[in-house]
Amino acid sequence: MSSRESPAAVLFDMDGTLVDTEDLWWDACVEVAGGLGSPLGEADREALFGLSVEDAALHISGGPGAGAVESLLTDAFTRRLKNGVTMLPGAVALLEALRAAGIPAGLVSASPRPVVDLVLETVGGHRFRLSVAAGDSARNKPAPDPYLAAAARLGVDPAACVAIEDSPTGVASARSAGCAVIVVGTSGAAGGVTAAGATAGGVKAGGVTAGGVTAGGVTAGGVRAGGVTAVPTLESVDLPLLRRLVSDPGPVTPRT
Question: Given Cys at both, which of 32, 90, 162, 186 links 235, Cβ 3.0 to 4.6 Å?
Fold first, then answer.
């Protein structure tokens, strides 16, 4: 068992974890795809959940013209964000508790830098020691690079950090970087828990797979399996839980 008493840092995903932007993202995707003559359905909504702008553009375009679609998606999403975003329950209280305890908070997002900076204006950039956006590391989520970059910039071991995510893509990224992971949400596949390999009643066989990166299994209700803990909202996350996760982190997926 480790002798760590507190996380070296807590690293937060942004969209759907700290701020309620998932519907705004979906609306942006629907607008862009519709404008290209490729209307989206509910199956696309699940497929696009948690994807980076690059991967979403590939999904919508099928490959050709993906670069132009990225720009369209970013513009459509940014227009919606300018009307304001809502912090999710428990987000502000948790960030303030971390600051009071002297534990650094970092933002690790798959969104482009203009989107991240716009959201930070709303949630308060002063609450975060750093932010990592798309393009700030060699590869985006689900690769481990964004979380490894955040830990390196903070000068801490990723294994001493807790990452908080809401999607299979993000869980895979954080777990493959070596972080303990909390996955937030219990609304089924679209909410990130069932899709991340969790069942409401216990441990599901298998694990989390996103983009070829596999992480450990998940259970709901704050129970941990394979280094991933599922909770319904950030209101369920407190300092004692974070400390337990780094004092007894469980098995860690090798970094790739």
Answer: 90
Q: Is 248 one of the annotated active-site residues of the chain?
A: no
> Do the beta carbons of residue 161 and residue 12 sit within 8 Å?
no
Q: Which of 13, 55, 145, 166 is catalytic?
A: 13
Q: Which candidate in 15, 44, 136, 145 is catalytic? A: 15
Is-catalytic flag, 75? no
pLDDT per residue, tens digit, the chain (256 aa), is: 345 789 999 999 999 999 999 899 999 999 999 999 989 998 999 889 888 889 999 999 987 788 899 999 999 999 999 988 999 999 999 999 999 999 999 999 999 999 999 999 988 999 999 999 999 999 999 999 999 999 999 999 999 999 999 999 999 999 999 999 999 985 432 233 333 333 322 222 233 333 333 333 343 344 454 679 999 999 999 999 999 999 875 544 434 4
- H or E segment and range at residue 203: strand 202-203
Prediction pTM value: 0.80
Alpha helix segments (H runs only) across the chain = 22-35, 42-48, 53-61, 66-81, 91-101, 113-123, 145-154, 168-177, 239-247
* Amino acid letter for position 223: V
> Cα–Cα–Cα angle for 199, 203, 207, nearest 5°?
90
